[in-house]
Write a structure and sequence with these properties.
mainly alpha, 3-stranded mixed β-sheet, 3 strands, globular
Length: about 140
């Protein structure tokens, strides 16, 4: 089986993973909720926000959080801390943007692991941190 890589050239990006991962979530989430109905559920798989919506529907509660843009936000903060000049939209720099995007993706399993650990810790300790995560917004009906 050919391994697919998330790429800026792929028009569907991570959304191509939705159907397969939704099937997995449909088989797992109801069992988790049956055993631990009060649990906060943290969605880490791609695409995180659509899967958080599905998890909320399957769990029949709103205690669902996705990793959202936490990892991307950390990458951005790292670029800022390094003092890199960020290319402006619409002003060329396409090659530089592509380079910066891929530079941050080299070993993303470590980054998402750190994000998952941090969010899990915050949830377990009820730290009430501010983090760029996905959660359901009832007024707008969106995660």
């Amino acid at each position: 089986m050919k391994k697919e890589v998330t790429s800026l050239a792929n028009p569907h990006g991570r959304l191509r993973l939705l159907d397969v991962n939704a099937g997995i979530f449909e088989s797992i989430v109801p069992g988790v909720v049956a055993v631990v109905p009060e649990a906060v559920l943290l969605v880490v798989a791609d695409p995180p926000d659509p899967l958080a919506d599905l998890t909320r529907l399957l769990a029949k509660h709103d205690r669902v959080v996705s990793t959202g843009t936490f990892l991307d936000s950390l990458r951005f903060a790292t670029h800022l801390a390094e003092g890199r000049r960020l290319p402006r939209a619409g002003r060329g720099g396409g090659a530089e943007r592509e380079h910066q995007h891929h530079r941050g993706l080299g070993a993303s399993q470590y980054g998402i692991g750190a994000v998952t650990a941090r969010l899990t810790e915050a949830i377990l300790r009820d730290e009430r941190i501010g983090a760029p995560v996905g959660s359901f917004h009832a007024k707008d009906g969106v995660t």
